Amino acid sequence: MSEASVIQSRIDTTSDDYQQNLAEMQALWDEVQQEMGKVPTIGGQRYVDRHRSRGKMLVRERVEALIDPNTALLELSPLAGWGTQDPIGVGTFNGIGVIEGVECGIAGSDMTVRGGAGNPTTWNKQKRFFQIVRENRLPLILLNESAGADLPRQADIFVYGGEQFRDITQLSKMGIPSICVAFGPNTAGGAYIPGMSDYTVFVKERGTAYLGGPPLVKMAINEDVDEETLGGAEMHSRTSGLSDYLAKDEMDGLRIARQIVRHLEWKKLGPGPTALPDDPLYDPAELLGCAMANVRIPFDIKEIHARILDGSRFEEFKPLYGEKLVCGWGSICGFPIGILGNNGILFSEEASKGAQFIQLCNKLNIPLLFMHNITGFMVGSKAEQGGIIRNGAKLVNAVSNSTVPHLNLMVGASYGAGNYGMAGKSYNPRFVFTWPNHRIAVMGPEPLAGVMDIIARNAAAGRGQEVDEKALEERRTALEAQIEYESLALFSTGRLWDDGIIHPADTRTVLGLALSAIHSNEIKGATEYGVWRH
Questions:
Q1: Of the candidates 513, 347, 369, the residue with the CA atom closest to the CA atom of residue 432
Q2: Beta bridge partners of 117
Q3: Residue 265, Cβ neighbours under 10 Å: how many?
Q4: Which residue has the higher pLDDT, 479 or 102?
Q5: Measured between alpha carbons, how far is 308 from 513 in angstroms, rounded to an integer?
Q6: Alpha carbons 188 and 363: distance in angstroms, whole number
Q7: Fewest CB atoms less than 10 Å from the CB: which of 109, 130, 352, 534?
């Protein structure tokens, strides 16, 4: 590979255009931040006060006390459930934090939300979290205190809810340890979480675990029994053997969890950072104004490279061919990375170039970062005759069979098959992070409504009927509004299509954390691909 060049930014951050776009992007982030602000107290202040009156910490306070001081914490899917009937955050914390110098997956239930009871979105959020823990080989910390399933919604939870128990035991088989700290009740199926964990810590006079609580025991076998005798921390530590450590209080429980992580002597399997981790030449704070708030307006993807890559260095691959797909190598926080970023629609040349670049990164065992700002593949007779399907399939083939870790960064639109060609959510990327301007759908609102308009007119003509222009315009307007709403970054993150909306200025830090977590597992590229047409 040739020597990397330093990117020269062409953005004038003092210009009116930049400042106007910056203000629009800031407004989008303010909306996200407002929703984020609802999460820690989503159960309501009354429930927070009740929790604290019992001498208990909130879940995020426990996490902050658990991780190493002055280290970054990456919360995953904090706005899961947005726009659904489920509360924002869905009553659980998931994230990656550093404990005793080791990146760990951390999950904790939020007792201020329906007593920590899980709803269907909770289980989907947990399922994605366990996938991240497994694929990146992260020790798992479970800060448990939950009433189990939200019983009135059991029909949407029960059948698939058992996957989490299977996941924990499979992690153990793979050599990925799990540590459960019981701060409160672990009821019914939830009792199996400490049961399946490699290490268990019960907080004295707080942590409990039982398959059936005192009322159920009374009903089932007519036995009168108190909580401590049935499933208290002392009983499980001295009698049943479910508890490995008895903590005197919550802080002691967190101390013991840190102690367990320390004695794991965890070793990463990846090579780790091998490049110079110097800061970019340009201020990452400028990223908020680099991408366009209006995704219909193009921008140069390399302006983002210049503000996230070490030393703003980028070795571009095939710069004169397939210019709408920018490919090349750089490093983030010392971790080598191959980047594919959109500077427009995908033509045959871009698809072919991307497939070749993916193969090269697999040969070099280098993770891939896909930066989405894509309206899709080119359409029309010229594109079809030029082999857009053949070459698009080649790119999808390479994406599908690539085995180096993939990361997605959604910095604009991600429409249609362009999402697939750029290794979107359905292609199992290790992480997907979005900016607040992100839009995702089969196509943009106006084109989609326009297509449906044409179909409706053709159908009417086929039936020999006149078009009701007013009704058609009303349907078109309603459809545009629907697709616009369903394309929003908030809508996407609420349905777990990504792992969280991040502030653009935090992108380098977030990607650095994700890459460090990825290197806990081995980085190994593919040597074989499916058949493709040349």
A1: 369
A2: none
A3: 8
A4: 102
A5: 13
A6: 49
A7: 534
